[in-house]
Amino acid sequence: MADVTIYTTQICPYCYRAKQLLKAKGVDYTEIDVSMDAARKREMVEKAGGRRTVPQVFINGTHVGGCDDLYALDHQGGLDRLLAAS
């Protein structure tokens, strides 16, 4: 199974939607809440190429992007392929 990490905050509706999609696909993921953790937020921004918004999703070390990016990838059929690769 794929190694999925999602950086989130507690009150983000886009984070909720991204997690919903991953759950619907039966994907286990590691959630990192950056709400009150400046060090984790810096880590996320660095790994995401400067992107500061949440969620930021990584699959097998590849930066997928945010919620809209995740849904677009799914719509194009690329999400299932990425999740199948381990």
TrEMBL record:
Residue spans making up a coiled coil are: none
Q: Name one Pfam family in it.
A: Glutaredoxin
State if Transport is listed as a keyword.
yes
Keyword list (alphabetical) reads: Cytoplasm, Disulfide bond, Electron transport, Redox-active center, Transport
Q: Name one GO biological process term.
A: cellular response to oxidative stress
What GO terms are given for molecular function?
A: glutathione disulfide oxidoreductase activity
SUPFAM superfamilies in UniProt? Thioredoxin-like (SSF52833)
Recorded GO CC terms: cytoplasm
Q: Which CDD domains match?
A: GRX_GRXb_1_3_like (cd03418)
Where is the GST N-terminal domain positioned along the sequence? 2-86
Role summary: Has a glutathione-disulfide oxidoreductase activity in the presence of NADPH and glutathione reductase. Reduces low molecular weight disulfides and proteins.
Q: PANTHER family under this entry? A: GLUTAREDOXIN 2, GLUTAREDOXIN-1-RELATED
The record's NCBIfam families line, in alphabetical order, gives:
GRX_bact
Q: Hey, which family's this protein in?
A: Belongs to the glutaredoxin family.
Instruction: Give the protein name, as stated in the record.
Output: Glutaredoxin
Q: Which organism is it from?
A: Zavarzinia compransoris
Gene expressing this chain:
grxC
